[in-house]
Specification:
It is a single chain. With 362 residues, the chain is mainly alpha-helical. It is 73% helix and 0% strand. It has helices spanning 2-30, 36-52, 58-78, 90-111, 121-130, 138-151, 156-168, 172-185, 190-203, 210-222, 227-239, 243-256, 263-276, 291-307, 312-325, 328-341, 346-356. Helix 2 packs antiparallel against helix 3. 25% of the residues are buried.
Amino acid sequence: MIVFWIAVGVMSAAVAGFILRRAARAAAAGGDADSTLPLYQRQLSEIEDLADRGLIAADERRSAHAEAARRLLSAAESAGPAWTVSATSRPVLVGLAVIGPVAALGLYLGFGSPGYGDQPYAQRLDQWRAAPPTQLDAPRMAAVLRSVTAERPANPEPYRFLAIAEMASGDAPAAARALREALRLAPERADLWESLGEALMMAAEGEVTPQAAAAFQRALERDPKAATARFHLARGQIEAGEIEAGLAQWRALLADLPAADPRRAVLQAAITDVAAGPRQPAPPADPAIGAPEIAAMVEGLAARLAADPDDAQGWVRLVRSYAVMGDAARRDAALTQAKARYADNPQILRELAQAAAAEPMR
């Protein structure tokens, strides 16, 4: 590596010297000549030639001739010797050109790491795979799982875990692609269709798009009791303005959930919020989204965390949402649950505290 950089420095200095030497030669050979004077002289002779051949009228000849003569005189008056470098200054310039690359090389050798070896991606990937999963952040975990899917292309489970990691990384389109691969291998799994619907919703910033609704419908075709699909399809109805129809679906889902199911409390709160209507008489900042829809999206996040609580950033968003909505009771409840789950993660605890301190919406 050191030999390489020395060679590069010497080559740079040699090239700089060669360029300066050739420039000095060119300046010495023709530095005093002004190329504009022959150009205007040639224009005058061309004008005369065109006039003699009858290709331009007499008045055009006079005006063109006068303009070319004016330019010729102006160029002759302003012409001066071209810039050049004195013989005593040239060695200084060449020395500076050589010193620059040599100095850069010396600084690199003194303060850089010329002996530090490359760390190819494959080597880093091996290190991540050997590390405990709890020490990897979401993007590195996703990289590990992508390698696992390449090793087990016929198993849908690695693709499902990859989708979870991509979602945690904030890359919803990548999560959707992973889930489609999983569904190609296991098209009858309702849970995969539900996850695909949620990934499509995340890509659409929480909106139940037609594509997400279609995924949830496919889940219900395979499992009519799929709670996540039923919840979000009803929420889609509420977002579309069919509030009573959506509430009816939510109430039916609530009746089907077991008494001990932790999602019951979240679903009941969502029903209560939407049935109560907007809390503020003033319209929200975005006229395309109303208070019932905002509450429904927050409760959708709460329902997802109740089903799959291993989402630290999801808990942070939920706590912040309750704080912004001014719902102190549920903010504190979510904060307590999240702090208990991530008690050994100081970074997440700090983010949760900041989220809880968010100012309520006015």
